[in-house]
Amino acid sequence: MIVRTLEQCRDSERRVASDTWESVRMILKDDNMGFSFHITTIYADTTTHIHYKNHLESVYCIQGEGDIEIVGGETYPIKSGTLYVLDKHDEHFLKANKGKEMIMACVFNPPITGKETHDENGVYPLID
Ligand code: 9YT
Questions:
Q1: Is residue 9 part of a domain?
Q2: 40 lines ligand 1 (CB under 6 A)
Q3: Is residue 20 within 6 Å of ligand 1 at its C-beta?
Q4: What is the per-residue pLDDT across 41-98, written as a single tens digit (0 to 9) for each?
Q5: How far is the CA of 112 from the centre of ligand 1 (A)?
Q6: How far is the CA of 51 from the centre of ligand 1 (A)?
Q7: Which pLDDT value is given to residue 114?
Q8: Ligand 1 centroid to 40 CA: how many Å?
Q9: Which atom of ligand 1 is nearest to the CA of 52?
Q10: Domain count along the chain
């Protein structure tokens, strides 16, 4: 059994940050769950280009407001209670509105190891 708090994870190497977001990886590959689980904050008034070519991801918005624009496709509003599922490795722009940072619970399959960083195309490599 594993029990962790967000606070404990935030005060460890599980917290990573960029210019537009920070993320606390509460479950990683080495926990052997078959998925990773992240609490990600998208900073207010920012846009992030993301393309998880090697991972499937579900994202549930706990707090905040913004939208997700699928490259070459639709734009969907996001608010507290919205789930979006990147079931086709959809390339997207994730935007948090002014004054409305978004707090998201994210699940990845396969799990993130913790060593990935977004490359210049917003892609995470697959690490074995
Ligand atoms: C919102 C979103 O895609 N979160 C993904 C996880 C985050 N980028 C991380 O932990 O690296």
A1: no
A2: yes
A3: no
A4: 999 999 998 999 889 999 999 999 999 999 999 999 999 999 999 999 999 999 999 9
A5: 10
A6: 11
A7: 83
A8: 6
A9: 3
A10: 1
Q: Dihedral sign for Cα 35, 17, 46, 39, please.
A: positive
Long-range contacts of 77-82 (CB under 8 A, 24+ apart): 78/102
**Rounded distance between C-alpha atoms, residue 105 and residue 82, angstroms:** 11
Task: CATH number of the domain at 82, please.
Answer: 2.60.120.10
Q: Is residue 55 part of a domain?
A: yes
Give the whole-angstrom CA distance, residue 96 versus residue 98. Answer: 7
pTM of the model: 0.92
For CA atoms 67, 98, 114, 118, the dihedral sign is positive
The DSSP code sequence of 69-96 is EETTS-EEEEETT-EEEETT---EEEEE
Beta bridge pairs of residue 86: 57
25 lines ligand 1 (CB under 6 A): yes
Residue 87: inside a domain = yes
Ligand 1, atom 10, lies closest to the CA of 23
